# Entry
Amino acid sequence: MRDTRNIVILTGAGISAESGLATFRGPDGLWEGYRVEDVCTPEALRRDPELVLGFYDARRAALGAVVPNAAHAALGRLDAEWKGGLLIVTQNVDDLHERGGAKRLIHIHGELLSALCRACGGREAFAGDMIDGPACASCGADALRPDIVFFGEIPYEMETIQDAVSEADLFVSIGTSGAVYPAAGFVRIARAAGAETLELNLDPSEGSHWFGESRTGPASVLVPEWVDEVLARQG
Ligand code: APR
# Structure
């Protein structure tokens, strides 16, 4: 096993499940109640902006009622104490990683607490309801949309992420079903680059067979245990 210097961690909805946020594909998952085509595509936003903006307004409002769990806090501790390279790539659009202390973090699918202007392309921190048609802080246009990567759109910061995954010594996946690309393909890039690969998930995912090791259980238990292990390696 080569020295572990550069770590890349991919997280999904499962890491926020114990904080009370629904996953997408589990029982009571978001995609049980809504069709992706109705709330998570550019076409849906054009066809029925009320439904789409309302869907994300409700998810944004729900953030106020939840707090980070032990898994978020453990990754915040790792971020503070790990002297080597670290990048947390989250598919989640909630802000629980930040509230758990993570700094070396990329939201590959966007953020609920950010708005994107369709007129000028500007981005701004956003905490209210978009359904009321707030004006863009930069250009004044009533053209804000959720700063979320819809299906069919290009995920954020792909070059930075792919460079980090290709240089990782250790790639860890937490709380994701491995159903959505390009994130579901990162484990193969990491493996091809000779990285150690570890999955921490409640159930085996669609990509479990790509991982050198898979541990099953709740993130709030598995992640703090793993962080203790990897910090102990640092010596
Ligand atoms: N601890 C660890 N893992 C958990 C927990 C938990 N407490 N609860 C659920 N899980 C696991 C499930 O076993 C499942 O494999 O988390 C995974 C959640 O999978 P999905 O609901 O498919 O969510 P995710 O993988 O993040 O979805 C990927 O799909 O819909 C799009 O853009 C959306 O970012 C999202 C992407």
In short: Strands lie at 7-11, 86-90, 105-107, 110-117, 123-125, 144-148, 170-174, 196-201, 213-216.
